[in-house]
Write a structure and sequence with these properties.
With 418 residues, this protein is mainly α. The protein is built from 15 helices and no strands. Helix 11 runs antiparallel to helix 12.
C-alpha cells in the first residue's frame, strides 16, 4: 500500500548537522539572552516611565523594523556580491551590541528610538547573510531541522534573558505593577555581557562557506524569481500587515491586570513553549508540505489575537501567550526553510533579503496602525485596546486561505531562475 511517510532512518538527526549550525545557534542564544533582558520591558519603559501613547510605541517599532528591512535587502544582495556571509553577520551582531548601551541614558522616547534604530540596523545587516550562511551549509533535507534548531536556541536564550530580568525586577521592585527607571538602568549593562560574547563566538567559531558571486547593483525587482516565490511574498506581506509588534501584547497583558512580574512570567512561558516546539516543527516540515504548517500557524495566530481582543483578566493573557508560542514554533523557522525551497541557490542571499525586507516594510504600517487603532492620535482616542487584535485576526484568516492555494512543486523539481 502506498504511503507518504518518510523512512525515519533517513530523516536528518541533530548530530549530523554541520559546525556552522551550532555556532550560529550559540551566537543567537547569547544575543537573545541580552535582548530579552530589555525587550519585554521596553514598551513598559515607554508607557510606565516615559508616558508615551501607543501610537508612539507603534511609530518607534515601525520605524525600527523598516530600517531593518531596508538593510536586510542590501545585506542579502551584498553577501551574494561578495560570495561571503560570515563577516557581515559578525558586524551586524556587533552593531546591535553597541546600540543597546544607549538605553542606559533613556529619559525620553527619542533615546529609545535611537537605540532601536541602531539595534535593528545591526539585525538587518546580519539576518540575510546569517540565514544564507546556514542554508549554504546544509543539504536540502536538513533545512527544516537546522532552522528549527536555530530558532529553538534563539528562543532558549530569550528564556534565560527573561529569567535574569525577572530576578532583577523581583529584588528591586517585588510585585510592583509598573516598571521603575532604576530597575531598567540596572539591566542595561548586564545585557551587554552576553551580547559581546555572541560576537566573539561567531567571529572565532563560524566558518565561511563558498557561495556563487553575483555581479551588478541591488535591484528592487523580483524578475529573477518564479511566480510561486512572488505569490508567497504577497501572502506574507498581507499577513504581516496585521502582525503588529509583540510590544502591544505586553501592553495588553498589563492592561488586563498582569503585574510586572506576571508579564515577565508570561513571556517566559511563551518562549519555553516556542523553544520546545521549534526543533520538532522544523523536522516535521522536512517530511510534509511546509505550507500546511505555515497556514495552520497563521490560523492559530488569528485565534490568539481574537482572544487578546476580548481578554479581561491577566490569566487569560498569560494562557493566550502560551498558545502564541505554538504559533511561533510552527512558522518562524519553517518560513525561512520554505524560502530556501522556493529560491535558486545562487540567489538565496538575495531571496532572504527580499523576504525579510517585505516582512520589515509591512511591520511599519502594522505597528503604527495598531497604535492608532488602540489610542488614536491628537484629539482622537482610537477604538480601544481590542481593535488592533481584531484587525490582525482578520488578515491572518485571509492570508492562511491564500497560502493554502499556493501550488506545490512537482517532486524532484528545484527552484530555478526565470
Amino acid at each position: 500500500m502506498a504511503t507518504n511517510l518518510v523512512d525515519q532512518s533517513l530523516a536528518p538527526r541533530p548530530q549530523s548537522l554541520p559546525r556552522n549550525v551550532w555556532i550560529v545557534t550559540a551566537a543567537s542564544f547569547l544575543t537573545d539572552v541580552s535582548s530579552e533582558m530589555l525587550a519585554t520591558l521596553l514598551p513598559l519603559l515607554l508607557a510606565n516611565v516615559l508616558g508615551t501613547r501607543t501610537s508612539v510605541v507603534g511609530l518607534i517599532e515601525g520605524l525600527a523594523e523598516t530600517t531593518s528591512s531596508l538593510m536586510k535587502l542590501f545585506s542579502g544582495w551584498f553577501s551574494d556580491r561578495l560570495g561571503q556571509r560570515k563577516w557581515l553577520t559578525v558586524l551586524g551582531y556587533a552593531l546591535s551590541t553597541a546600540a543597546k548601551g544607549v538605553l542606559f541614558f533613556a529619559n525620553a522616547w527619542g533615546w529609545v528610538l535611537g537605540s532601536r534604530f541602531g539595534d535593528r540596523l545591526g539585525k538587518g545587516l546580519r539576518t540575510a547573510p546569517r540565514d544564507a550562511l546556514l542554508a549554504d551549509s546544509l543539504r536540502p533535507e536538513q533545512r527544516g531541522l537546522a532552522f528549527g534548531l536555530h530558532r529553538a536556541g534563539d528562543t532558549a536564550g530569550a528564556v534565560v534573558g527573561l529569567v535574569v530580568a525577572l530576578v532583577v525586577v523581583w529584588f528591586s521592585q517585588q510585585n510592583a505593577a509598573l516598571l521603575s527607571p532604576a530597575t531598567f538602568r540596572m539591566l542595561v549593562p548586564l545585557s551587554l555581557i552576553p551580547a559581546a560574547l555572541a560576537v566573539l563566538v561567531l567571529a572565532f567559531g563560524a566558518r565561511e562557506t563558498p557561495a556563487p558571486r553575483q555581479n551588478g547593483l541591488p535591484q528592487l525587482t523580483l524578475a529573477p524569481f518564479d511566480a510561486r516565490f512572488k505569490y508567497f511574498l504577497f501572502v506574507v506581506a498581507l499577513f504581516t500587515l496585521g502582525n503588529s509588534s509583540d510590544a502591544f501584547l505586553v501592553l495588553r497583558a498589563q492592561a488586563a491586570g498582569l503585574p510586572l512580574i506576571g508579564v515577565l512570567g508570561m513571556m517566559i512561558t511563551f518562549n519555553v513553549i516556542y523553544a520546545a516546539l521549534s526543533g520538532p516543527a522544523g523536522a516535521l516540515s522536512d517530511r510534509i508540505d511546509r505550507r500546511w504548517l505555515l497556514a495552520g500557524g497563521w490560523l492559530l495566530y488569528g485565534l490568539v489575537y481574537l482572544g487578546f481582543a476580548s481578554a479581561t483578566a491577566g490569566w487569560q493573557a498569560w494562557a493566550l501567550m502560551a498558545v502564541y508560542g505554538v504559533y511561533y514554533a510552527f512558522t518562524e523557522g519553517v518560513a525561512k526553510a520554505y524560502v530556501a525551497d522556493l529560491a535558486p541557490p545562487d540567489l538565496r542571499g538575495t531571496a532572504y533579503g527580499v523576504f525579510n525586507a517585505v516582512v520589515g516594510l509591512m511591520a511599519f504600517p502594522a505597528s503604527f496602525v495598531a497604535g492608532l487603532l488602540w489610542q488614536g492620535a491628537g484629539g482622537w482616542e482610537g477604538f480601544g485596546p481590542g481593535a488592533p487584535f481584531y484587525f490582525g485576526a482578520a488578515l491572518a484568516l485571509v492570508a492562511a486561505t491564500l497560502l493554502a492555494r499556493l501550488p506545490r512543486p512537482a517532486p524532484g523539481i528545484t527552484a530555478r531562475r526565470r
